[in-house]
Structures are given as C-alpha cells and as structure tokens.
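Structure tokens please, single chain.
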Amino acid sequence: MKTKLISGKIFALLGPNGTGKTTLIRSILGRLKYSSGIIRVFGIRPGSKHSDIPGPGVGYMPQELALFEEFTIREILRYYGNLYHMESDELLNRIDNLIEILNLPESSRPISRLSGGQRRRVSIAITMVHRPRLIILDEPTVGVDPMLRLRMWQYLENCCKRYGESTQPAPILAFHYIEL
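Here you go.
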C-alpha cells in the first residue's frame, strides 16, 4: 500500500487487495481496535474525548452502497442532513449545490430508479452533505464517466482550498484503486 498526494490536500491510498487499506479505514472510524501503533487525525486520536472522528467530523462512503431505495434523492439528503442537525436553509442550499455539482437527475426521482453511477453519486452527496472535516471515499469513481469524475475531483479540490483557508483545515482522503 502507498499513499499518494493527488493535488492540494487530497490523498489516495493505493494498493492491491490485502495491503491494509480497509483495515486503516476501519481503525480510523473506530470499527476496529488495533493492538499496536497510533493513529492520529488532525493531531488527535480518533475516538478520544476531544475528537469528532468517528462522528460528525467524518463523512464516509464505503465501496458497497447502502441506500434507502424508497427515498427520493432530495429525501435521502434531507434525512442525512437532519441526522447532523443542519439548519433547514443551509441544508436545502447544500442539497441543491450537491445535486448540481454531482450532476444528479431531478431530486424527486426515487433511489430505486437510479443507475449504478447515479447511486454512487448520491452516496458521495450523502457523505459530504454535512461538510465534515475528513472525507473518506472508498472506490468513489467506480461506474462514473470520465467527465463527471473530473468534475468530482475539481469539487473536492475546491473544498480543500476553501476550508484550508479557515481555522479548521479539511484534508480529504480518497481510497481507491484507479490510476490517478
């Protein structure tokens, strides 16, 4: 497994199956207890008293998608925004912005009627709706056409630039196997 700086603050963990990418993700998210070594995110151990990771400080999109089929695009984004106690106006603006950036179909379309690539983009929107400081995407561009892949990476770079100037930096970790 190797880490590669793609641009700005976007990193990728690259490597074949069995090199520990998923183990590292699970450890960061508190799903796996490790017996040795130390993991720090933003200088703090995940799961410690002063960390919001795992929790609202991280947005995580696993490789396997798990979406509520009966929800519409807008409903599922509102659902997750409400879980993070987002203000209604901010949430609605954020949803509209993500729908545009990720080139999603009309927001009233049920998840059950989306293609695989559209479902993946909805999952990415869910991951980012609450503007977490850390975003972990596992195989984010599988099934996504090259032009949209470029738009997604540009959006992530802009997020890094915008939040990098604030008091709370927002590095983004992207985990995938594709050539960069």
